[in-house]
Amino acid sequence: MSTDFSVKKLALACATGLLVAACSQGSSIESPGVTNPGTPPGGGGGGGGGGGSGAAPCPSGFTCRTAAVGGNTVAVVSGAVLTNLTLTNETGVVYEIDGRLDIGSDVGATGTGGSAARLTIEPGVTVFGNSGQDYIVVNRGSQIEAAGNAANPILFTSQADIERRADADPSNDDGGSNISEWGGLVILGQAPINRCRDAATPGTAQCENIVEGVTNPDALYGGNDATDNSGILRYVQVRFAGFAINTQGNELNGITFAGVGSGTEVDYVQVHNNSDDGVEFFGGNVDVSHLVLTGNDDDSLDTDNGYVGHIQFVVVTQRADGGDNLFEMSSVAPGVMPSSPTVSNFTLVGNRTNAFRLNTGTVGHFVNGVVDYGKECFRWEGSAGDGVAGYNAALDPMFNSVLFDCDAGLTTGNSDAAAAQGAVNADSNNFVGANSLAATFFPGPVEAGVTPVDPTTVDASFEAASFIGAFSPAETVTQNWAAGWTFNLFPDPVCPTGTTDSGFDIDGTTVCRLSGVITNDIRLTRGNFYELAGRVDVGVDVGADGNAAGGDPASLTIESGVTIFGDAGSDHLVVNRGSQLFSNGTLANPVIFTSEADVTSAPGDRTDAISEWGGLVILGRAPINRCRDAATPGTAACENIVEGVTNPDALYGGAIADDNSGSLTYTRVQFAGFAINTQGNELNGITFAGVGSGTNVENIQVHNNSDDGVEFFGGSVNVRNLVLTGNDDDSIDTDNGYNGNIQFAIVLQRAGGGDNIFEMSSVAPGVLPSNPAIANFTVVGDRTNAFRLNTGTVGRYINGVVDFGKQCFRWESSAGDGVAGYNAALDPMFNSVLFD
Q1: How far apart are CA 387 and CA 296, in angstroms?
Q2: Residue 554, Cβ density class (10 Å: 0-12 exposed, 13-18 middle, ≥19 buried)
Q3: Is the pLDDT assigned to residue 303 strictly greater than 50?
């Protein structure tokens, strides 16, 4: 049914917001693209061809290898740098660390010994190692000034990485699961620590320690200078490190911050595929902002030895085949100058050991977070915090405005479960339940529903952020603080399981196809278009009681920002009884159901475009009053079918008033109502048939549908923030015993079509009547009637404005109690309504 998408231009009408009002297709959407995986070696000059001598000249003052690496000239840096050194950005030049590279020699905790030096690295420079012997140590008193920028990040990586990206095989450019290809980066400072190598008072100049495995000379850290300055790391990537640095098997973290002080700037840093921790903080109080930790093989973020810094905007995703805890937080004995980091705006995704491992003596404050984890959220030791079992809000780790979605529950079996549960319960803004993240990291309606903490009230060093998680609701895969300078954080989108790749694209964006009957849960991820190929059923009808033969429930989850389209009346979506639809749009990124013509046509006037695909049908088990067979209205035996939706019939009705068919938030349905069969049956934009009050429906628009905008066949679903524009029959139609509540409704009829704004129907008076309650509505039109009130319908309408070019009412005498004249107890009721 579809034409060749690859030759068409994307112009999705008014897709940047929820509301359209007889809009033209002049505005366009940028298709989600592929994020720049990072600047290639040479500061953007490309990797060149493989092998041979590099074409670039050797930088002045350096010795260069005879053999090139990835086509680049290789300048070698080794030994101890005891004077200031700059690695300049030269096109086609990379810098090799040959063995342990010391920046300065240790000046001690008080700065009275050794020799200070500074290593400056210009934006776009690539520095690499080739084994565990190749690593950098920035000693106390010395500095590293690695100040990249978004267009030209500084890259610390392996020789293997450079060669992979320069060879002729693009499939290995991201390095896959490779780890442990060189040593890592160690930064040593003079800030306070709480674990002393020798007998000393924690936090004093005499309290020093060494980084395990870094010997000859020892990597000493610690002191009493909280504002110690070890330099700058800005727009920096550290990839594929953690190679054992000695025969004892000691592996380095991607970056080790040991006793590093708050005078050091760390902003926009990524550690990728390290074989030990991504970053570890041994004491000190350095602050970090915009931290990305991906694919690390041990803990992603580890704190110990009295670390008390602040970390904001953190993204963590574990590797599929390795990794331990996302956060491991440790200290010394409770009460001894504890490790107490403050972490704000984090999104953690993984499936290995625990999201948080909270060990002896650690405290910490964690705010505005999203945890999406396949195992338990916590391994909470009884010795954490104050070291006493149970929760002490003054002395134990604290969590505020954090969403916990952990498949295996809140805690491990060996945890202090009471402490963990107490910490979660201590703030009513913490939430335990399913997340609605889109494209792995981006907030959906569930995240938007969590009340955030103002981080500036937690600590003045934080930026204001009125959302939970690492990214704001306005950010997308291509437009966010991590886009462009990071590596492999946003891989190319693929068609999710349960869909098929159509083989077509729209302006480079893949079109995935949905077809047939969905019997396993499917999630439509952001970054693709989705085509409805014929009738698509979510699940198989389970019957009114949930026990129908052959019944098979399923769920369809649609991430925010996703667009789904059809091309004919045969293309429509049916959510069967017992199954669920989660359309997780947000204000910034609504879910859009539309037509192929809408997403592929050249810009133009689409004011009168209607009837270009089928529509959306949701079937539930809530009570109805019109029974297909002889039965008592409102009972499980009272069922009916949606007209025209056959083979199989679209059955609805039951006795479960709070039946839950899922959630629709910030969702647009536009240009639907194409006849679904040869008899000319048209679907409503959204059909709610027997849908129960357990279903969440808010912030919905139906635009330019050729039948009704929305129709409710019985049921009790409630709706809030409903927008109906340009629909060609009734805008809101209720029937068959609908008893839900609708608040905040806007209706605007099309200029050249439409019937009633409200058509309200039921069955014979007194039989479980249709009785909706509608509050705060503004309706504007000029077609047939503002209200058509038919047999048996009741209802209450309050706080409304009616601006209509014809009569306000077609009020059948059979409405309400079925007796001519007004009966306030049994007829439709209007309060505080302006009729014009």
Answers
A1: 30
A2: buried
A3: yes
